[in-house]
């Protein structure tokens, strides 16, 4: 992994000639014979100007902070001039993010903030204001800028989300999650196009109601846990046949997310590369149009993890795609994996955290075993070495702020205080670089759960308070929990 630092004086003036625009036909393919690439421009906002190593070699233009100048530059050639804006204010400047978003959907907005992985509400608000990425990790910032500028625009495909043309197949695969993984469509969609989405939403609601009924019925019939009542004194929802009590989910009103119903990944859309119609276009592009074709393998077995940071008791939450809110890290277990390996892999892919599983919270089985799930308790592994470089030690990033600007000096003191109080942020890093798996991750306190938008309330509001209040955790011993072997005879623990 490339070690990088925040540098106020990075050279940003290596320019290339401007590019001419292309016109596109109705099929989304370039109709011009001249294939001109994108011109990537960089604008950095705030007294604590962030730059990574060799940033000046990545971008074609260094642009000012003035919004009028940015609008003029983008409008000179909106199909070729692509703006990347880094908002590095010491406070969350949602108005600036919103103003930058008015420059167009092809503008890539990165918010740099010391609490990017510690303030779940502010993180969501930044995305809802128009940010594409919220980070406090210079390595992730560097990687994002590399990915943005590696898209040259010499192909003939158009993005179904933003309409930008000129992508190769691989560039479209890279562009889509980087720019649009959290984006939802507004209400201007075609009426007939959204009918399948409404039907799908209705089916999902019915299935969710049926699943809740089945979970309650299954838990009432039998339970493998000898769990005690949470110390908060809350009444348990059901009593199992062995006298065990199942924790009751919290049921306070959820915050209004103001999200449209229609989600881009769930429309009946044609793939711009192969023209196949699919209801999950993001997944389709990721599986079949990346550098290597992947296998869509589903086993019907799922593993989730409630990951608690031991020093302060905060819990790891994944920021799901398309404005669905936060949820626990986890997903499907692949063939050949153990249940614990599946949970650990999903925690890394979705939340960017290495974890160690410490116990079992629950084992569930529905639909005569066609759907099976285990929820583990886990702890994060401290970041001491570079995971992707053979365990080689990686230095902590340094923050360098200009000492010639009084506002920057004031910002420096606030960042220094945040760094002194935020050593946990560097020790337990999590994901801030959006990809097809998620928009990132965040550490949240149990008291913050009620204010957070959640993809589904049942799991986080049941098991996070249960763990925080000292609820009993089952050991990682198949003999002590025989239901694990009965429920998962084809998977190792």
UniProtKB/TrEMBL annotation:
Nudix hydrolase domain location: 297-469
Xref: InterPro entries? NUDIX_hydrolase-like_dom_sf (IPR015797), NUDIX_hydrolase_CS (IPR020084), NUDIX_hydrolase_dom (IPR000086), Nudix_hydrolase_domain (IPR051325)
- Pfam families this protein is in? NUDIX
Which parts pass through the membrane? 191-218
The GO annotation for biological process reads: AMP biosynthetic process; ATP biosynthetic process
Q: Which domain of life is it from?
A: Eukaryota
**What GO annotations for molecular function exist for this entry?**
bis(5'-nucleosyl)-tetraphosphatase (asymmetrical) activity
Which residue intervals make up region (Disordered)? 227-256
Q: Which UniProt keywords apply?
A: Hydrolase, Membrane, Transmembrane, Transmembrane helix
Protein's recorded name: Nudix hydrolase domain-containing protein
